[in-house]
Amino acid sequence: MFRNLRTIHRWVGLAGSLCMLVLAVSGFFLALKSEFGWMRPPTREAGEVHSLESSLHPTQVLDAAFAVGLPQLADLDDVDRFEYHQKGHLYKVLSKDGYHEVQVDAAEGTVLSVGKRNDQFTEDIHDLSILHPELRKFLLPVVAACLFTLGVTGVVMYFVPVVRRWRFRHRNAT
Questions:
Q1: Which residues pair with 100 in a beta bridge?
Q2: Tell me, what DSSP letter sits at residue 45?
């Protein structure tokens, strides 16, 4: 039984360690994404917006973002997220494909920045949806089960010899 447990631990450990390596590296970059300028374009400062009525309507913002000419951001179907940032007085329009971001001034409608959102790409790697969006629903629970199995078999393999030595010493002492 102990030999079978080691075999299971070895193979699950190999698969689990590969998954953990991907999760650890991508998690590291996601945790520090605001520290790395290449992960996410910095938020630009825009003009002052004094009231909600003085800011641009979302259709005007989308028109400005589409006018940039990115093939991955050509119409409304290409938009993944549309965000308003009160602190910077700007809108961010993010594409579904290509991980592009367009920052638009909320007061004037000028495009402040066009950049790549590498943090979104890293997040897709981290949650394994880069392989297939639906695969993460199946694969992440399997990875979790493998890591749980790895933990249980590791604890058993550590404590079985300890208990055997303790029993051996206890029998010989009496």
A1: 116
A2: P
pLDDT reported for residue 89: 84
Provide the whole-model pTM: 0.68
Rg (CA), the chain: 26
Q: Give per-residue pLDDT as tens, 6-21.
A: 788 788 878 878 888 8
Identity of the residue numbered 6 = R
Q: Please give the DSSP secondary-structure letter assigned to residue 110.
A: -
Tokens of 15: 């698969």
The two three-digit tokens of residue 170, written as one number: 């206890």
| Cβ within 8 Å of residue 160, ≥6 positions away | 2
Domain limits of the chain? Answer: 1-38+123-174, 41-116
Question: Which pLDDT does position 94 carry in this prediction?
Answer: 92
Q: For the chain, give me the number of helices (H) and strands (E)?
A: 4, 4
- Dump pLDDT digits (tens) for 57-98: 889 999 999 999 999 998 899 999 999 888 878 899 999 888
| CATH fold for domain 41-116 | Nuclear Transport Factor 2; Chain: A, (3.10.450)
What gap in Å lies between CA 159 and CA 164, rounded to an integer? Answer: 8
